[in-house]
Amino acid sequence: MNLVIQSLAPIAETHFKPLVGLARGARATPLDAHTLRIEEANPSQRADLDVYCGTHRLDYAFIEPGRQLRDFGLVAMDMDSTLITIECIDEIADFCGLKAEVAAITEASMRGEIRDFSESLTRRVALLEGLGASALERVYEERLQLSPGAERMLAGAKAAGLKTLLVSGGFTFFTEKLKARLGLDFARANTLEIVDGKLTGRVTGEIVDADVKARTLRETCAQLGIEPKRAIAIGDGSNDLKMMAEAGLSVAFRAKPVVREAASVAFNFVGLDGLLRLF
């Protein structure tokens, strides 16, 4: 396998020899100042590499030689804390003074400590009852930011011929705005019920949980005429695991431990554009 090492800061040459040794690889080739490829690396060395790379704030990934981004046909992304830096529901809750309570439930859900995502979402949304819908616009305008490297990753994926899917346990208010802003091909999320300009504390329609995320990936691949193994799935929370398991390559982005352990690749330090440097 090729081992691709990435860093936000330039990778010092002093890392080359230790990394080749730890990977039991053949040679190290710098691809740019922030990326190093080690050929003929041994995937059984993950545990040692994990310690070294974590200590030095390096991200690593084992990739099959010759694999290219254009081999894939779809990149599917979670929204909250993945494509964007915030959890929208936590920020909405801040406008009714309940951010701490809602964020605690969100964190437990994303870590996999609350097994039923639908129940978790229902509990959190219920706390928003009576809040003016204008809070949604304020969250989008004042607090929502794209994750580092998001636009560059999307541009690279599109240039390689991949379609893009945003699939979120969050809300259509945000996914539809991001779909239009970023030129995404597909989006799916939950719809907050609004009556007389206020949130009712309910969502309408089927809740987008882990199973629905996985099904949406499969259905989108079928629509594109490709196998799910030609999809890349990027996420950070436990409700992304089933979607990530369907894909041919899964990326844990600034993710919870349960997600990092299950994913093909984990980006703990670099931006989303680290995906492009793998190939």
Automatic annotation (TrEMBL):
Cofactor requirement: Mg(2+)
Active-site residues per Swiss-Prot or TrEMBL entry: 78 (nucleophile), 80 (proton donor)
GO molecular function, one term: magnesium ion binding
TM segment ranges: none
SUPFAM superfamilies in the cross-refs: HAD-like
Domain of life: Bacteria
EC number: 3.1.3.3
Pfam families: DUF4072, HAD
Pathway(s): Amino-acid biosynthesis; L-serine biosynthesis; L-serine from 3-phospho-D-glycerate: step 3/3
Record's keyword terms, sorted: Amino-acid biosynthesis, Hydrolase, Magnesium, Metal-binding, Serine biosynthesis
InterPro entries, per the entry: DUF4072 (IPR025138), HAD-like_SerB (IPR050582), HAD-like_sf (IPR036412), HAD_sf (IPR023214), PSP (IPR004469)
EC main group: hydrolase
Catalytic activity: O-phospho-L-serine + H2O = L-serine + phosphate; O-phospho-D-serine + H2O = D-serine + phosphate
Gene Ontology annotations for the cellular component aspect, listed alphabetically: cytoplasm
Domain named DUF4072: residues: 3-49
Protein's GO biological process: L-serine biosynthetic process
Stated family: Belongs to the HAD-like hydrolase superfamily. SerB family.
Name of the protein in question: Phosphoserine phosphatase
